[in-house]
Structure formats: structure tokens, C-alpha cells
Amino acid sequence: MKIEVTDQNPQIAVAIKKTAVNMDNLHEAIDEICARLLAYLSEQGTEMSGAPYLAYMNANDDFSQFDIEWGFPVAEPVPVSGEFYMSQTHEGKAITATHKGSYNDLETTYYAIMDYAKENSLESTGIYYDYYLNDPDETPESELLTQVLFPIK
Questions:
Q1: Number of domains forming the structure of the chain
Q2: C-alpha span between 153 and 146 (Å, rounded)
Q3: pLDDT digits (tens, 9 = 90+) for 87-144
């Protein structure tokens, strides 16, 4: 796995945030939010212009609870209301790696990035992104690609 520091350009996205998520209810939260976002984009006559992402933020020390932002990049801002809002992904330096395989194994990529950060004296901002580069409904689990991104200070 190639781990490197890259410069990220921001993308605007339509997003929903959910608070107090944990690993036990993460998949349920993602499925629920994803369905609502897809329906909202359809209502707006808008399509995604990049890979959907999941941002983890406000995690407690042992990462047993955190907030998530599920976002779908769009080319132009769309009208938002209620739980839907416009967001922007990270701009600036980040440690990145592409994970290949099951989402259940993403933890190995996270640990590798954390080790890289420690070895290179890099400090995370505390927000982490997963960009889903292919569709799990159309891609074998062993071929799934997820770009993991740790913004750094």
C-alpha cells in the first residue's frame, strides 16, 4: 500500500451529518443517510460529480463514538433545506492511501496511516475521510477501492 502526503483541492458537496455514531450502528447510519441523499439529489435534478465520502469527526479518545458527515460532491451548489446542507471537503495537506478490499478491513489502512504520521512527525486534524471510489453493488468485495485521507496540520 502506498502512503503519501498530498495536496487536496476542496470539493463542494451536499451532505448530512449524524452525531453520536459508533461502530455498531455505523452501517445502518450510512445506509439511511445514503438513501436520503440520493433521493434529495434526484429531486434536485443533480448528479454526483465525484466519489461520495464519509468524514469522521469529533471522536472521543478511544473512537468508540464520533460524528459523521456523508457527502456527495456536486458540480454546482444546490438549494438545501432541513437536514441537507452544502459542505466542502478538506483543502490542504493530507496523508492518503488507497485501501483495496472489504470495508471491514479499512482499520488496517487507518493503522498504517497512523504509523506513517507518527514516523514522520505529522499531526492529524482529527477529521478522517473515506472516499468510496467504486460502487459496492457493482464491484466484488475484494476489488472495492477506498481512498483514506487524514488531513494534517
A1: 1
A2: 23
A3: 999 999 999 999 999 998 999 999 999 999 999 999 999 999 999 999 998 999 999 9
62-64-69 Cα angle (round to 5): 115
- The C-alpha cell of 47 is what? 448528479
Check if the beta carbon of residue 64 is closer than 8 Å to that of residue 22.
yes
Measuring CA to CA, which residue among 91, 90, 69, 87 is closest to residue 78? 87
* Residue-number span of the structural domain to which 90 is assigned: 3-151
Look up residue 31 and give its three cell numbers: 445506509
Q: What is the pTM of this model?
A: 0.93
Provide the CATH number for the domain around residue 117: 3.20.80.10
- The predicted-structure confidence for 135-148, as pLDDT tens digits, reads as follows 998 999 999 999 99
With cell 504520521, the residue in question is 117
